[in-house]
Design brief:
Blueprint (H helix, E strand, L loop, with lengths): L1 E10 L3 E20 L4 E3 L12 H9 L6 E7 L9 H16 L6 H12 L5 H6 L2 E7 L2 E7 L5 E7 L5 H6 L7 H19 L3 H9 L5 H4 L6 H10 L4 E4 L6 E5 L4 H10 L4 E6 L7 E3 L2
Parallel strand pairs: 3-4
Antiparallel strand pairs: 1-2, 1-11, 2-4, 2-5, 5-6, 7-9, 7-10, 8-9
Helix pairs in contact: 1-2, 2-3, 6-7
The structure holds L-homoserine (HSE).
Length: 288
Amino acid sequence: MRIIVPATSANIGPGFDSVGVALSKYLTIDIVKPQEEWFVEHDLEFVPSDRYNLLIKTALKVYPDLQPHHVRMTSDIPLARGLGSSSSVIVAGIELANQLANLELTDDEKLRLATEIEGHPDNVAPAIFGNLVISSYVNKKVAKIVTDFPEASFVAFIPNYPLRTSESRGVLPTQFSSKKAVAASSIANVAIAALLTGDLVEAGKAIEADMFHEPFRQKLVQEFYPIRQLGHELGAYATYLSGAGPTVMILASKDKEQAIKEAIDSLSLDGECVVLSVDRQGVRTESR
Ligand code: HSE
């Protein structure tokens, strides 16, 4: 049995802790065989291989009596880069428990469990459902809408350095005046309405006008401004910080993706530029 979970890009400008899209990078878990103790085979440094691995911790939270297994974990989702790597592991852990204990969890049950563990639904929701998901988590209640992301390309510049979500959340204000909160949420409303009606030009303007987190975080990612500038010159819809960063995401029409990638490559920044597309499926299993 194989479990596959897509990467995710959260926030998309003003959708802080609420909006995310599933993208075409993947975490794969192969369930190899039952054995005495848990063993997570992987090639990551500083990541546990026993029951303290986040994958197994999550699975045991869902179902403490699981039979230990040897599992193999491979992923092309870079760690601590704003592409939902830990959310993908949490979703995979829930699916692992679901499969091994035959729990028959619904997607909404998976979302509730994953959100409780992660604390906000913006990455875990698209990792479960695929596509674009708008969600909220208030008073321990999760609500979500899953919808098609309009046809577009995501050109991701992934810096060579990690940025911990805790550090990136640490620079955010703890309070907004009601005037600022109203302005910030009106921008978010327009961004979502524009995405839902397929108006990527209007969506792009609202995405770049975020007031909730990007103005405070951009100083943590020095590549952000040159890339946004380049996006403007090449007619991209928007450039935003993916999740808590440091990945910088350019949203553009498909016919512009190659030119944008080449222009970013020619800046010779310290990192990698990849073109991603929307994953429309979310977490899935394959029997092998
Ligand atoms: N919404 C989260 C943030 C995503 O921006 O901090 C990363 O967990």
